[in-house]
Design brief:
Blueprint lengths: L5 E3 L6 H5 L13 E5 L5 H15 L3 E6 L4 E7 L5 E7 L3 E2 L9 E2 H4 L2
Parallel strand pairs: 2-3
Antiparallel strand pairs: 1-2, 3-4, 4-5, 6-7
């Protein structure tokens, strides 16, 4: 199953998967925030397969950090179940909707 670079969620979301060794995913419910970091070896798969899987699960917010382009693409789920995409380029400050008061400074991240 997919292993993102960073996940923000509740521990209880893992409870069912730990017991089922044949589960296709470690998380049983949509997550507030999932972060993937693009790499040359898995970048295409991360964008086409993993992000699609996170959207299918209904995760509230999905980030793809691209260190070479110095960008962060965010997909945020709307009330209708669709996703709005926004791309940030350093320098920029990005605030995850699921973590009030948290801000990510892309200039610092990519420094």
């Amino acid at each position: 199953y997919s292993i993102p670079a960073l996940v923000v969620g509740r521990v209880r979301a893992l409870e069912g998967a730990r017991e089922d060794r044949h589960a296709l995913d470690a998380y049983s419910e949509p997550l507030p925030l999932v972060v993937e970091v693009w790499s040359p070896s898995t970048g295409g798969y991360d964008v086409t397969e993993k992000v699609a899987g996170y959207r299918e699960r209904g995760d509230a917010e999905i980030w793809l950090v691209h260190p070479y382009d110095r960008t962060l693409t965010a997909w945020r789920r709307d009330a209708a179940g669709g996703y709005a995409e926004q791309r940030y380029t350093a320098p920029a400050i990005v605030a995850p909707a699921s973590l009030p008061g948290v801000r990510l400074d892309l200039a610092e991240l990519f420094r």
